Amino acid sequence: MTSPSPLFQTSGLSKRFGGLQALASVDALQYPGELLGLIGPNGSGKSTFVNVVSGTLPGDEGKVWLEGRQISGLPQHLVTRAGVARTFQAVKVFRELSVLDNVLAGLLGHRARPHEANERARSAMDRVGLTVAPDTAAGRLSLFDQRRLEFAMRLVAKPTLLMLDEPVGGLNPEEIRSMIALISSLREHCGILIIEHTMKVITSLADRVMVLVNGRKLIDDAPGVVLRDRAVIETYLGA
Amino acid sequence: MKLRIAILVAALPLLGLFGDPKGLTVFIVGLVLINMLLASGLNLLYGFGGLIPFTFAGISGTSAFICCNLVLHAGWSFWIALPVGCVAASILGLALSFPAIRLRGFYFALSGLVIQSALTIAFIYFPSLTNGDTGITSIPRPTLAGQPIVSPWLEILIATATVLTVTGISALMRSPIGSMLIAIRDDEDLSRALGINVTAVRSLAFLIASLIAGLGGGVYAHYVGFVSPRTFDVLISLNLWLMVAVGGRGTLVGPLLGALILTPLPFIFQQYTWIKDVIYGGAIVVVIMFLPAGLFGLLQRRAS
Predict the structure, then answer these.
(1) Do A105 and B183 touch (CB under 8 A)?
(2) Where does a domain end: A142, A157, A172?
(3) Confidence band, pLDDT 50/70/90 cuts, at residue B213
(4) Contacts 24+ apart (CB under 8 A), B164-170
(5) CB contacts, 8 Å: B189 with chain A
(6) Under an 8 A CB cutoff, do A77 and B192 touch?
(7) Residue A88 lies inside a defined structural domain of this protein
(8) Residue A65 and residue B88: Cα distance in Å, rounded?
(9) Cβ <8 Å between A109 and B189
(10) Chain A to chain B, count of Cβ pairs less than 8 Å apart?
(11) Residue A89 falls within a domain, yes or no?
(12) 3-state DSSP assignment of residue B168
């Protein structure tokens, strides 16, 4: 198999908070069409990884490339414009604004043509299956709908890489099943990276799984291989 | 729609001009209009931007002192001195926003309080510009064709400036910049994650609000005829903030309504200054506890 050029790549990514090495020289690689799962115990650096890649936090060392273009060191709005979209662990929408305005806010930083904006927003809402009235205040939506709204707010700007930080947190089993189907349907539109504790999400979606422990990459392989790995079982799944 | 209500409210004080043309009422009309202008500018930062800019009075004062000095000592026309004062105010406002713009909520307000105090002290210690605590007196009214503009024409002119400013703010808030400013106010982290350049949008808001502060300051100096460092101290920032809060922050009409109600109070209760203070204190308590959206917010809720 000839290896295609990677969609997303990090090399030597490091971040220190005082005495805590949150990320220690992490090399990550994701090819187009691939869904990368990121797992690890609490405090292993998963969210820090997403924060540093997206520019939410500045990294200390290391580089990040998106489709061959270096994006590390850029301020967050430029990283986002370059095509990296992220969600937050706790759901975050503009609660006072309408659903439609929330989706439109996803375009504000992206210089979209005004006459296209509404159409793009509606099609992003359709894509995530958000069927509520567009003028509903976002704060009144159910958690599941708010999660889907978060997706629409990112998809409207057509990201290259979508990083989801625990997308099924707080959802019930039935909603988790719909969410898995939804995420799976987004794979054709952009690269997806998921942080998740719910193993079902990882096993049913991820093509590859990267395990972080204490800020270091422990293993990076197919889910079947990773979940049978002794070191992983001991440090992460270990009873 | 809301702009039309705002223009109507901004024109309302002009009704006071039908009284004695040289009386106190006409003077209060002018002050109400100037406060409407200033409060609308402060509302851009506080109501739409979510930042309490305690430096507002100091920025306004910088323009006022520059403007009246250019007129009194350099012999400039008011019409050239005023834009110079406005530009100076915008540059100062933008410069002062840089260190503070990264701070959030309470800490931003606190930094503004410190900067405002420093500005007041600077005004007192640069007597060549401000004549120190004595202040500058006998500032001439703006002239047109060599003649000072008299009441009620000057008040009508100020009303026009206020209406134009409010119209400008309305257009800004309907543009993507306005949407971004509101998005940042509601959730800064989310706005950054959606690709919004938070620093640039906030700096632009500061630039425009400081321009309005400068306009109000320059006009005030030449309308009232007297300015001193105390004319632009932290209490003035607080008064303007209170106007926005009482009227309704984050709306076009709110600051106009607040200025209309609060500006005449000191004149009405002239003989009983303690009542004025009680009313101001009471207004702060009532607004914070019962009217977080201000009077206009209450009216809107009743209407819908």
Answers:
(1) yes
(2) A157
(3) very high
(4) B165/B37, B165/B40, B165/B41, B165/B212, B165/B215, B166/B3, B166/B6, B166/B7, B166/B10, B166/B36, B166/B40, B166/B252, B166/B256, B167/B3, B167/B7, B169/B40, B169/B43, B169/B44, B169/B252, B170/B2, B170/B3, B170/B6, B170/B252
(5) 56, 88, 92
(6) yes
(7) no
(8) 43
(9) no
(10) 61
(11) no
(12) helix
Query: What is the band of B191 on the pLDDT scale with cuts at 50, 70, 90?
Result: very high
Contact assignment for B180 to A76 by CB distance below 8 Å: no
In a domain, B300, yes or no: no
Contact criterion met (CB < 8 Å) for A105 and B179: yes
Chain A residue with minimal CA distance to B195? A77
Partners of residue B187 in chain A, C-beta under 8 Å:
92, 94
**Considering its fold, how many domains does chain A have in total?**
2
Asked whether the beta carbons of residue B193 and residue A86 sit closer than 8 angstroms, the reply is yes
pTM: 0.92
**pLDDT confidence band for B284 (50 / 70 / 90):** confident
Q: Are residues A116 and A202 in the same domain?
A: no
Chain A interface disruption, residue of B194, B198, B304, most A CBs within 10 A? B194
Parent domain of B146: 2-236
**Structural domain that includes position A136:** 94-157
| Single-letter amino acid code for the residue at A134 | P
Residues A122 and A189 in one domain: no
Same domain, A101 and A74: no
Most B CBs within 10 A among A77, A91, A150, A163, hence the mutation to make, goes to A77
- Which of A123, A140, A157 is at the close of a domain? A157
Is B226 a domain residue?
A: yes
Same domain, A39 and A144: no
**Model confidence over A154-174: pLDDT tens digits?**
999 999 999 999 999 999 999
Answer whether residue B31 is part of any domain: yes
The answer to whether residue A239 scores a pLDDT higher than 50 is no
**Cα separation values, B107 from A10, A137, B104, Å:** 36, 30, 6
Q: How do strand A69-70 and strand A61-66 relate by DSSP bridges? A: antiparallel
Distance from CA of B266 to the nearest CA of A (A): 37
Q: Are A60 and A117 in a shared domain?
A: no
CA distance, residue A224 to nearest chain B CA (Å)? 33
CA distance linking residue B96 with residue B98, whole number of Å: 6
Q: Give the full edge-to-edge strand order of the sheet including A20-30.
A: A20-30, A8-17, A61-66, A69-70
Q: With an 8 Å Cβ cutoff, are B196 and A96 in contact?
A: no
Ranking A220-229, B189-198, B276-285 by mean pLDDT, the lowest is B276-285
Q: Are residues A35 and A132 in the same domain?
A: no
pLDDT digits 0-9 by tens, B8-39: 999 999 988 887 766 888 999 999 999 999 99
Q: Is residue B252 part of a domain?
A: no
DSSP-H helix ranges across chain A: 46-54, 76-82, 99-105, 114-127, 143-155, 173-186, 199-205, 223-228, 230-232
CATH number, residue A179: 3.40.50.300
Picking from A54, A80, A94, the nearest residue to B183 by CB comes out as: A94
Domain count, chain B: 1
Are B180 and A109 a contacting pair at CB < 8 A? Answer: yes
